[in-house]
Request: fold
Amino acid sequence: MSERREPILCPHCAEPTMPNRLSDGLLVCSCAAERPLPEPPPVKD
Ligand SMILES: [Zn+2]
Reply:
Protein backbone atom coordinates (compact mmCIF):
# COMPACT_ATOMS: atom_id res chain seq x y z
CA MET A 1 0.00 0.00 0.00
CA SER A 2 1.50 3.27 -1.11
CA GLU A 3 0.27 6.58 0.10
CA ARG A 4 0.45 9.38 -2.38
CA ARG A 5 1.60 12.76 -1.24
CA GLU A 6 0.57 15.34 -3.74
CA PRO A 7 0.04 19.03 -3.18
CA ILE A 8 -3.53 19.94 -2.54
CA LEU A 9 -5.35 23.20 -2.09
CA CYS A 10 -5.72 23.71 1.62
CA PRO A 11 -9.37 24.37 2.40
CA HIS A 12 -8.36 26.43 5.41
CA CYS A 13 -5.53 28.55 4.03
CA ALA A 14 -6.56 28.54 0.36
CA GLU A 15 -2.96 27.81 -0.57
CA PRO A 16 -1.28 24.79 -2.13
CA THR A 17 -0.06 22.58 0.67
CA MET A 18 1.47 19.19 1.17
CA PRO A 19 -0.62 16.99 3.45
CA ASN A 20 1.36 15.96 6.49
CA ARG A 21 0.60 12.68 8.21
CA LEU A 22 1.27 12.95 11.90
CA SER A 23 2.39 10.02 14.01
CA ASP A 24 -1.08 9.80 15.52
CA GLY A 25 -2.62 9.42 12.08
CA LEU A 26 -3.97 12.93 11.81
CA LEU A 27 -3.65 14.58 8.43
CA VAL A 28 -2.70 18.24 8.59
CA CYS A 29 -1.70 20.89 6.07
CA SER A 30 1.91 21.96 5.94
CA CYS A 31 1.01 25.62 6.22
CA ALA A 32 2.00 27.47 9.35
CA ALA A 33 -1.47 26.81 10.72
CA GLU A 34 -1.12 23.01 10.43
CA ARG A 35 -4.86 22.59 10.40
CA PRO A 36 -6.48 19.19 10.14
CA LEU A 37 -7.34 18.17 6.59
CA PRO A 38 -10.15 15.95 5.42
CA GLU A 39 -8.98 12.49 4.43
CA PRO A 40 -8.28 12.26 0.72
CA PRO A 41 -10.25 9.66 -1.19
CA PRO A 42 -8.38 6.36 -1.42
CA VAL A 43 -6.42 5.97 -4.61
CA LYS A 44 -6.85 2.69 -6.39
CA ASP A 45 -4.41 1.83 -9.14
ZN1 LIG B 1 -3.34 25.14 5.53
Q: What stands out?
A: The chain has one domain: 1-37. The two ends are 10 Å apart (CA to CA).
